[in-house]
Amino acid sequence: MFNKRVYFRVLPAIFLAALLIFADRAGLLQSWDAKVTDALSVGQPPAGDILIVTIDNASIQKLGVWPWRRSIHAKIIEELTRLDARAIGYDVNFPEAQSEPEDAALERAIAASGRVVLPLEATLSLAGAPPVARDLLLPLPRFSKNARLGVANTPADPDSVLRRIPVKVKTEKGELKNAFFAEILAQAGYKNQTSGPFLIVDFAGPARTYPMVGASELLEGKVAAAAVAGKIVLVGATAPDLHDQLLTPTAKAEMMSGVEAQANAVASGRTGGLREEPFAARALLIILVILLSFYFPLLFRRIRSALIWLFIILVLLGAAALVLAEVKLLISVFYPVLALFLGAAASILLRLSKEKREKGQLRTTLSRYVSHQVVEYLIGHPEKLALGGEKREMTVLFSDLRGFTTLSEKMKPEQLVAVLNTYLTEMTAIIFVHEGVLDKYMGDAVMAFWNAPLDVPDHAENAAAAAIAMRDRLREMNATGAFPEGVELRLGVGVNSGPMVVGNMGGTERFDYTVMGDAVNLGSRLEGLNKEYGTEIIVSESTAAKLSSGILLRPLDLVAVKGKKEPVEIFEVVGRRDEAAPAMIQFAADFAAARSLYREKKFSEAKAAFEALGEKFPADFATKNYIERCVSFLAVPPPSDWNGVWVMMKK
Question: 382-580 has which fold?
Fold first, then answer.
């Protein structure tokens, strides 16, 4: 049920409804409203007793350049009369004399037919109802005295689309003139069923929906009497060069000729055309929809449930519009749909702002110590705020810039800060994209981890992919001038997987959400090993074992890092296999084979293999290391219990 608090919150919805009703009344978004209504309207089938005789390019080529001689028009009227057309709507104005023989021929044809309706044209002012017509352009009296006259203007809406035609217009002298389509209906013996001052045309379809015959075909006797007898025939221009083309709701890709629009108007006038709901009904619908859309998010505990109901309302609005369009009643759904979205948005914003205020203080405090991801997780799981941690299988990443200390000594402090900020921003974004958590910055170094507090099943794969992306992005930044001239950065990355303790570490007044353990320390050591091998990304055997075949690895060494008793197999991450050159894939395989010879104490064969690789890849530092080791062991062989471990004396 509503309470005072809900009543107060509904006030913004009433305000929004008032704004939308005003916008609708003022026609502020009329073109959008009309486009939506066009899409939902259902056209009527074309009337079977309407025929169009076209003044088309083919007829102009056969009968002569436009404008035609009046005797040609006379022959068209005579032929249509002979074929027993019920009414002839001749959509060509004859305001000026041509020549006496020609004009006399047309006068005789119109008088003999007694079925002709001629157009008159005017400048319309649509502000009133009926519209006011100024500057009337009438046919010569000798033609109009034996014909009906109707205003043929087809004023478009603000979006240049013809949708409605005034049924009557008022001259400056106060005389009422019927529309061209209305006079055609009267000539054919039909009553104009349009109830309002404007006929909303119920277009039967796109251009060329109504049957057409060319004027030249008619005069050549190629049109059967059955095609004309008893029908309403409209004659008018369809040749593009005559510039009588219109946009209509059903003809936007290919414009519709003016005479086709008049044919649709004739058919629509006979049935009353389309109807629109009263404005009061539209206003009530806007109010109802915006109240429902505003109240549902407040009513339901879960926003998802409210959104389902709002979607149902949206579907019902569309269905109602389609059903009513079948009975020729157009209802505007644009403003009600807009009301639906605005009401729901306002309500959800109110609800979210309340939740935001409640969590704001906690978020502000936590954001000083942990990453955004961890903040959001801890807000949803406040029990995790207690000091302590849990042991989990995780992956940790350490990265560091090479030679940054030396570089910093050559740069001004403000330049150094700008370079570092640019670099750290890009690297952090990559970590977040790959579902990692930023642990901390340590100068130019970055520490991140995966699989806590959120579960990341492929944590090793994600960490390796992040390392590749960091390396590639830094290369791209160097190449595209992201840093000042002369500054080129290189990084080293170490990645290790294993059991780690993760949680809030520190005191009750200040703590940090981080990871600890031997596996973390090893990750840091691996980052430093890149300097020894001239590599950029090194992973441990525990990480390598979890990687898919899509990551191309090169087995580097079996090392005993400082601070670790057990030796560790290390691998270089070359890159993604599908992006690596065939030569690099072969190099990794050949390096592994040479290293196997080295591990088997076949130092002569290993030296030869490494030297062959060195010729192809002279810049590879690891290959040079192994050549030096082989030379050393050939001079002084290792002890019999040697197992291939290389002891690192540096961190």
Answer: Alpha-Beta Plaits (3.30.70)
